[in-house]
Write a structure and sequence with these properties.
This protein folds into two domains: 88 residues, Rossmann fold; 134 residues, NAD(P)-binding Rossmann-like Domain (Rossmann fold). Helix content is 40%, strand content 18%. The protein is built from ten helices and eleven strands. β9 and β10 form a beta hairpin. The chain starts with a strand and ends with a helix.
């Protein structure tokens, strides 16, 4: 068993970006600028946004964090997004999800200029990804593909089972893994809440991507010997022994599954850092395309 260490792979990507940004600065060219919007004070969202802002600082990007109370109206939020859309200095816009119930995720995502949609959620980018046209790919699936590429994991002709069908991870992941690319060229099965006997599909998989948000759902008896396992899940579980009061667990029962795998991602330290690295790459490319 070998670890797909997201921290190491993400650091390699950030180190490359840092060099590229330093070169832009030396030439007097525009530095990438990411604007992040955080609504409310959800603990997990605070952590995620904080990590993204820190990554911007690390690679030399400019970043702006815009905070709103969870009572903000949808209209006011959309007005702010429009302001960022028209700001020539802003290259990437992200709105941290989830949003309060009175605000439509779809309305907010659709309001972001597709050319600044570095989270890759806009329907325009989703459509381009489906067609294999260059676009902003959702950061988590993009990060997973970068992780597989970094560790030179062979995916060609493999059977990949994606557990989960969200627009943020599951669906785009299935498209990317089946695309004519490297990594890619997999035969892909998508399992979800209505799939009967998920275990039988997982046991056929050379690659499992677990992205359903259920703690330790994938167990050792669901994984064949030598499989590659990508754990996208990250759930806060109460733990009085921890200073924070919680520990992080994934969708995979790591301790028992890991010995059966050829490669596996840890939680934390696997997919999470790669999501942020992919977001940084998307923001850099947005800046390059727009300037």
């Amino acid at each position: 068993m070998q670890l797909l260490d997201g921290k190491k792979a993400a650091q390699a990507i950030k180190d490359e970006l840092k060099i590229d940004v330093a070169q832009l600065a030396a030439e007097g060219k525009k530095i990438p600028h990411l604007a992040a919007i955080l609504v409310g004070n959800n603990g997990a969202s605070e952590t995620y946004v904080g990590a993204k802002v820190k990554a911007c600082e690390e690679v030399g990007f400019k970043s702006t964090l815009i905070r709103f109370e969870d009572t903000i109206s949808e209209m006011k939020l959309l007005e702010k997004i429009q302001e960022l859309n028209t700001d020539p200095d802003v290259d990437g816009i992200l709105v941290q999800l989830p949003l309060p119930k009175h605000i439509s995720d779809d309305e907010v995502i659709n309001a972001i200029d597709p050319e600044k949609d570095v989270d890759g959620f806009h329907p325009v980018n989703a459509g381009k990804m489906m067609q294999g046209v260059p676009c902003f790919v959702p950061a988590t699936p993009h990060g997973i593909m970068l992780l597989l590429e970094h560790y030179k994991v062979d995916t060609k002709g493999k059977h990949a089972v994606v557990v989960g069908r969200s627009n943020i991870v599951g669906r785009p992941m299935s498209i990317l893994l089946s695309s004519n690319s490297n990594p890619g060229n997999c035969t892909v099965t998508v399992c979800h809440s209505q799939t009967k006997d998920i275990k039988s599909f997982c046991l056929q998989a050379d690659i499992i991507v677990a992205a359903l948000g259920k703690t330790e759902f994938i167990t050792a008896d669901m994984v064949k010997e030598g499989a590659v396992v990508i754990d996208v899940g990250i759930t806060r579980v109460e733990d009085a022994a921890k200073k924070s009061g919680f520990k992080l667990k994934g969708d995979v029962a790591f301790d028992t599954v890991a010995p059966r795998c050829s490669w596996i991602t840890p939680v934390p330290g696997g997919v999470g850092p790669m999501t942020i690295a992919a977001l940084m790459k998307n923001t850099y490319h947005s800046c390059m395309l727009r300037n």
